[in-house]
Amino acid sequence: MTVYSFRLYVAGKTERSQTAEVNLRFLCDSRLPGGYEVEIVDASERPDLAEDGRILATPTVVRLAPLPQRRVIGDLSDHGRAAVALGLPAADELPPDRR
């Protein structure tokens, strides 16, 4: 089973940051049930990680695995576009044991 790994860069506990996290977790729960991990990085508290990740705007989500990396800037409110941009399987492509 492929495990997807994401890092979400936010800047503080803003409404936009929280919306991005909720949307990312919704996408993962619906498209990758039981097969993902999410790390939240507050760029204002960890500017070194944001710089290492070349993060220019927040919120930004980076798909770390599987390769290749993909990134999306924004709050992920357009679930369809965000799922395609992150390379997530469509709900009807999930194996029966993960639906």
CATH second-level architecture = 3-Layer(aba) Sandwich
CATH H-level name... which superfamily? Glutaredoxin
Beta-strand residue percentage: 15-25%
Q: What's the gyration radius in Å?
A: 13 Å
Q: What do we call the CATH topology?
A: Glutaredoxin
The number of helices is 3
CATH level-1 class: Alpha Beta
Sketch the topology as an H/E string, one letter per element. Answer: EHEHEEH
Structural class per helix/strand content?
A: alpha+beta
Helix content: 25-40%
Strand runs, count: 4
Q: Largest sheet, described in full?
A: 4 strands, mixed
What would you say this structure looks like, in words?
This protein is an alpha+beta fold. It has one domain (4-89): 3-Layer(aba) Sandwich (Glutaredoxin), CATH 3.40.30. The chain has three helices and four strands. The protein has helices at 15-31, 47-52, 79-85, and strands at 4-10, 36-42, 60-65, 70-73. Strand 1 (4-10), helix 1 (15-31) and strand 2 form a beta-alpha-beta unit. The protein is globular and about 40 Å long.
Keywords:
99 residues; alpha+beta; Glutaredoxin; 4-stranded mixed sheet
Question: Short summary of the structure?
Answer:
The two termini are 14 Å apart. It is built from 3 helices and 4 strands. It has helices spanning 15-31, 47-52, 79-85, and strands at 4-10, 36-42, 60-65, 70-73.
Please outline the helices and strands.
Blueprint: E1 4-10, H1 15-31, E2 36-42, H2 47-52, E3 60-65, E4 70-73, H3 79-85
